[in-house]
Fold this protein.
Amino acid sequence: MSGAEHVLVVGAGLAGLRTVEGLRRSGFDGRISLVGAEEHLPYDRPPLSKQYLAGEWERSKLDLIAAEGLAELGVRTHLGRRAVALRPGEVELDDGSTLHADAIVLAVGVAPRTLDDQPRSAHVLRSVEESDALRTALANSSSLLVVGAGFIGAEVASTALDRGLAVTVLEAGPVPMARVLGPDVGALAARLAAEAGADLRCGVAVSALTDAGASLSDGSVLNADTVVVGIGGRLDLGWLEPAGPDLAGGIPCDEHGRVEGLPGVWAVGDAAAWVDPRFGDRVRHEHWTSAVDQAAVVARDIAGAEPPPPTVPYFWSDQFGLKIQLIGRPDLADGMLPLHGDGLDGGEIKGTTVGYLRGEELVAVVGFGAARRIARYRKPLAAGADRAATLEFRETLT
């Protein structure tokens, strides 16, 4: 879409900021407005469960851009304002004002999922204020109970262990991150947590959460000084429902980020469900790198520039002394292909690298403390290598 005069970006996080920056890099010289529900300038969220939570980073290190930087980009900000309605060519904010634009980008993210009857004393982690509150609680605690062994829960547990707390992690599934990693690789993540000193309990659900801990489905009761609920994010898109799109799986977009049925509207980031041009399905990624990649596509689409080269989905998590890296689409896999290391056979976890196959096609690769190898596997993934080609490629890395 060329010829836009005013672009309105709703959501002042990573995806929103990178869209703004991409517009200017792509030659867009019109007006840009940035709306953010939080009063803060755009800041980075992954460190909230790691370096910032641990007290290793000062608050200023989270900032993705300073006010002067936004001014240089020619961006008008509306921070501390939540969007409450979307209509053709306009967005209404919670202060009653209405912003008009001929291109609207939804970069609204997700909200933390909570348990039924969750007490106010239980922590969640999405914003810097929530990280501040949890950091203060950990400083005055000797024990931590984490509900959910996903990436956020595991990172918080790891940070707390490093601070000397006794940590118990509850996971309703049979292994951590089973939906993403599958049962065998998820069992490797379980080993990683247990060997680091976490009391990991899988296959158990929380019957009731209290200020003092939790009652479990197996009848046991756990007490802890601090409780964290890290069970993923939830879509918070009720304000978009009157606009018409089916939001059950996220904001439905084509491969360019254009929202289905809403001309002049794009979506990026955690809440955006894009068509995967390679596999033809629609998928939503809650990943840092996906937000950046999508922002580049949308910015160029609005500016009328050539699209960037296609990318491979990528995610990482720093936990229990190792970096877990995942590239590709493991959700499509129906088989595994061990590539490097002995972790799946009970050996050392570090260096273990596993491929995911859809039939005979390589669709994803995960590595535990294997950063250089993971980077090299981008090429066969992008090329749609089959089992034989992947094994042949593996030999070049040994």
The chain has a mean pLDDT of 96.
